[in-house]
Fold:
Amino acid sequence: MSTDTSHETTPDSAAPAPRRKDTAQYGVAALLAVIGVYTIYDASTLAVGFGDPVGPRAFPYVIGTVMVVLGVLLVLATARGDVPEEEGGEDVDLTSPTDLVTILKLVGVMVFTIATVSWLGWAISGALLFAGAAWSLGSRTQLRDLLVGAAMSVLSWYGFYVGLGIPLTPGILDGIL
Amino acid sequence: MDSFSLLWDGLANAVTPVNLLYALIGVALGTFIGVLPGIGPAMAVALLLPVTYGLDPVPSFIMFAGIYYGGMYGGSTTSILLNTPGESASVMTALEGNKMAKRGRAAQALATAAIGSFIAGTIGTLLLAFFAPALADVAVDIGAPSYLAVIVLAMVLVTSVLGSSQLRGFIALFIGLTIGLVGLDLNTGQARLSFDQPLLADRLDIVVVAVGIFALGEALWVAAHLRRTPLEVIPVGQPWMGRDDWRRSWKPWLRGTALGFPFGAIPAGGAETPTFLSYILERRLARKGHEFGDGAIEGVAGPEAANNASAAGTFVPLLALGLPVTATAAIMLAALRNFGIQPGPQLMVEQSDLVWTLLASLLIGNTFLLVLNLPMAPMWAKLLRIPRPQLYAGILFFASLGAYTTNQQPFDVFLLLVFGLLGLMMRRFALPVLPLILGVILGPMMETEFREALALSGGSVTGLVNEPLAVVVYVVVALALIIPRIVARTRGTEPEDQERPEEVVRR
Structure:
């Protein structure tokens, strides 16, 4: 789903720009249609039982069909010049173009965490997650971030273990924590 | 009056030193997370839900109620001191609140918000104690067809009445319904949309979906457009109010409460509409009238009270029908199920002591909010100065922790990432989040009722409309779909008002 945001080519602007087409919306429409078609296909593989007048297929069929229709409507709206009003926020500067590099770095950090958390354990993976994410977002105090991250992850490990009796994965620190 | 003696028993049950400690921790954590920029109450509740796992129902309710009220108040603090509301319900607070702060009256703005929230929350909870059992009594007799109709009504109202574009609302709703399909079919036990993944067949955890869409999606969206020059934070001292502030605040508090509670209780999307109406009402009623637009205390007192009263109101359909109507309520529903409570008409009959304890917890959480936040406001304001890279790295950290602790599976963190990217996409393309979350929660409920209704009627379509209530509700649904279009045609600019409140002020 990340690929859709990467279609963006036009600079984002909060100001009411002259009517332009948001071509990236065609990507969203295509995604809706693909999900809809797959939902219908997936439902067609289900077996229908006896004595169940509706069965497991009806809902996916309806939802999938509506998704395809919504995709078509979005194509029509986009072609007519419909432009989404992007969400603002406290730290959001819509006049700057989408910073894809930062997003990719953050996704990379998350993927690293997913891949290593079972092996390294939460205490280490969590610390690296915090430091890595702060670095991706432009922090230049890596050592401090690493220390803060380590403190947060070790404390949360003990918080869950001692306070709530939930042992998070200790990983390679098994026996030390 | 019987309700109130039961509520009193609930209070007696809940007030123990240990439970009060949990209330304190809950309020502190909720405010801490809620005050962080970009985090609304729904996100705070979703992020902090894992903290309540593993506790007994009563302490976890109390802590949870504290988190809930703390998260809501944290959002108001942010909008008053930063002028950039984290969620739609505090848009109106920011209008006058930030102007007050700029004129050096931040302390009074925070005080009227806190005290107004307390009063509205208390009255709202008492009204809830009165109405929820009454509604549950009626709801016990509601059959599957009417229940289905009410679910459809909630979906349609949230999707079509709120927000600027019906098309985008329905896109979000149906993405949510698709997500709700994932997992075992409730009747036949076959896995749907699971890609042969046993972890998916087990159904998605709503906490992972919500944290992904709200917290991670927001963090990624901010990362894509990070403001490199930080916003100006207005320094604040100890909140207090003078005699004149009290005189000007108490009526807006009560009027806000009166507007907020009923709007919260009907499935119309929570606090957005009543806070807007309360703001308009106070502006009309202000005799001098001219201070509006430059920091009128009435414009903070009214909407803040409306916000909290509507939050109490959302508990009416949640407890009596099992029907969440806001994003926060959707996560609450997930939380209650986690605690082994199935909200709905039967709840009041079968587990009424738990319900009364929950209501008592709300009162306690609300009180602690006042006790804790008035003195600690200057400290919370300092949180707004956390450097942004560390702040959003922290959100990523806690989001991952929350997802990971649901099942201790790295796969849940992967799902979190997928939903985070979906959340990013939704923000980029202006797809509203609320219909999606409601779709995820209400979709499976809707399918259950639909199939039950048709199973009872032997497959005949008349089974969907054989109760008078169902027919009435469908008529309301049709009106809800048609009226916004007519209003938009005849008055052109009207729906825009809710989107851009600044324009209302300028008029």
